[in-house]
């Protein structure tokens, strides 16, 4: 099912037109998201953990400093109807050329949940894995969540595509997922960009003709991707290995057995919303929420909208969907 929201972007676009004059200590995106935002001071207090070669930050429900001890509960064998009696854990997967710090900027928005922010292989404290392919990335996610019960995966961009790849594997601890702008299909990318990747050259000027004003604002105020050019190249080559638009990919998604929602910005010129609609139609019972007037950087610019979708999936999990 596709839901189209006509007023979400337009309702706040006028107040978002100007930057807020942030300093390092002021809330990030104060002009765009009056609630659910973090400050640099919050990041300074985070505790970083390592598990199976993956660096991550953990926040307990209701806790915003990242200093709470990480729980190590056993993986439950209980029937699905008992999930309602346990607390859902959100695991966020970041996008291309990024790391956990970018998604963590909006971590307060989800403070009703236990939440984990892992780094994909090859950045910050996470070790490289194999050839750092999309399959290696998905392996790392599956290993990371293997002992976290009742996981609700949330992925943005590359992270969203990886969440779809993880769902194909049907890991035992995953109860649901939200995929945000994550249906990248390299068949629509310019041949010159793909050819440059084959020669280990990342030239973003070849990737897209234009981006919308929403994403221009986001890129200007988030700043550049926080990882090195080598990691960005590594990620784009991993992107190139993802294809959920072909018959095999769609057939695999048709076997998904947990509740899934997809979120797209209608003005997303990086991952067209139509591609997410294909994924939503392939997954049984999936919902697709399309936000008008919004581009690719939805979790950073409009985290409250993602929270509404996450809450909806969490409720389906609790009901045993």
Notes on the protein architecture:
There is one protein chain. This protein has helices spanning 8-13, 40-44, 100-104, 134-145, 158-169, 191-198, 213-222, 229-240, 247-253, 273-282, 298-301, 303-318; strands at 2-5, 48-51, 54-59, 89-93, 114-118, 151-156, 174-180, 260-265, 287-291. It contains twelve helices and nine strands. Mean pLDDT is 81; it is low at 6-36. A nine-stranded mixed beta sheet has the order 1-9-8-7-6-4-5-3-2, with helices on both faces. It is α/β, with parallel strands linked by helices and 321 residues long. β6, α5 and β7 (174-180) form a beta-alpha-beta unit. It is globular, with a radius of gyration of 18 Å. The protein is 33% helix and 15% strand.
Distance between the termini: 15 Å
Based on Cα principal axes, name the global outline: globular
The count of helical stretches stands at: 12
Roughly how much helix do the residues carry, as a percent range? 25-40%
For this entry, what is the oligomeric state of its chains? Answer: single chain
Structure summary, number of beta strands: 9
Give the helices and strands as they follow along the chain: EHHEEEHEHEHEHHHHEHEHH
- Major beta-sheet overview: 9 strands, mixed
Average pLDDT for all residues: 81
Strand order across the largest sheet = 1-9-8-7-6-4-5-3-2
Secondary structural class: alpha/beta
Poorly predicted regions: 6-36
Content of β-strand: 5-15%
């Amino acid at each position: 099912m596709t839901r189209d929201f006509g007023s979400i972007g337009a309702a706040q676009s006028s107040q978002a037109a100007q930057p807020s004059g942030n300093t390092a200590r002021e809330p990030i995106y104060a002009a765009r998201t009056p609630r659910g935002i973090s400050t640099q001071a919050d990041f300074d207090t985070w505790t970083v953990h390592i598990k199976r070669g993956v660096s991550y930050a953990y926040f307990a429900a209701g806790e915003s400093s990242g200093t709470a001890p990480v729980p190590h509960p056993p993986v439950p064998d209980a029937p699905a109807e008992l999930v309602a009696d346990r607390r859902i854990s959100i695991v966020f997967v970041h996008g291309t050329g990024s790391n956990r710090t970018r998604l963590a900027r909006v971590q307060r928005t989800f403070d009703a949940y236990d939440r984990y922010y892992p780094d994909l292989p090859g950045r910050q404290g996470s070790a490289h894995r194999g050839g750092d392919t999309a399959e290696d990335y998905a392996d790392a996610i599956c290993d990371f969540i293997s002992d976290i019960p009742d996981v609700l995966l949330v992925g943005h961009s590359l992270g969203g595509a990886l969440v779809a790849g993880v769902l194909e594997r049907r890991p035992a601890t995953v109860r649901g997922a939200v995929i945000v702008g994550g249906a990248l299909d390299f068949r629509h990318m310019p041949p010159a960009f793909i050819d440059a990747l084959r020669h280990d050259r990342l030239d973003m000027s070849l990737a897209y003709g234009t981006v919308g004003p929403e994403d221009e604002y986001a890129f200007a105020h988030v700043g550049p991707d926080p990882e090195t050019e080598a990691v960005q190249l590594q990620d784009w080559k991993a992107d190139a290995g993802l294809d959920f638009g072909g018959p095999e990919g769609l057939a695999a998604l048709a076997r998904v057995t947990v509740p899934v929602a997809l979120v797209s910005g209608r003005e997303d010129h990086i991952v067209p919303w139509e591609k997410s609609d294909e994924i939503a139609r392939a997954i049984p019972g999936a919902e697709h929420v399309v936000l008008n007037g919004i581009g690719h950087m939805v979790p950073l610019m409009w985290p409250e909208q993602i929270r509404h979708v996450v809450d909806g999936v969490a409720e389906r999990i609790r009901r045993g969907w």
